[in-house]
Amino acid sequence: MRNMSFSLTTHQYLARTKDVTRRLGWWFLKPGEIVNGVEKAMGLRKGQKIVRLGQHRIVSTHAEPLNAITRNECRREGFPGMPPEQFVDMFCRHNRCTPETIINRIEFQHVGASRHPRKNI
């Protein structure tokens, strides 16, 4: 099973206020797939283990420009008070892209109970 990192939105993932994520990749995902949500998947230091947050089932994926995000979509990303322009700016800073970049909008459903953020797999 694949691990998808939620390092910038760990709190939102655990609180289940996030059911959409935008990625520059993950084009291979198909509806119905189950994915592990993890705190951090890459760049772990020697001895560090992956911290599993929970699992989610992919509902849908589609390509769209990053700057097409709406206020409602910001809420679904886990940022209810953030205006779309601020979300785009944050995403671009963290992912080194432009507002016009085509991203993968991934909608998902949480499966089962959330894990404690310090429980390792």
- Order of strands in the sheet with most strands: 1-3-4-5-2
Measured on Cα atoms, how large is the radius of gyration? 14 Å
Main sheet: strands, sense, barrel = 5 strands, mixed
N-to-C SSE series? EHEEEHHE
Chain-averaged pLDDT: 92
Uncertain spans: none
* Count of individual beta strands: 5
* Principal-axes shape call: globular
Question: Overview of this structure, please?
Answer:
This protein is α+β, with helices and mostly antiparallel strands and 121 residues long. The protein is built from three helices and five strands; from the N terminus they run βαβββααβ. The protein has helices at 10-15, 71-76, 84-95; strands at residues 3-5, 20-23, 34-38, 52-65, 102-111. The radius of gyration is 14 Å and the shape is globular.
Write the layout of secondary structure elements.
Layout: E1 3-5, H1 10-15, E2 20-23, E3 34-38, E4 52-65, H2 71-76, H3 84-95, E5 102-111
Parallel strand pairs: 1-3
Antiparallel strand pairs: 2-5, 3-4, 4-5
Key attributes of the depicted protein:
121 residues; alpha+beta; 3 helices; 5 strands; 30% strand
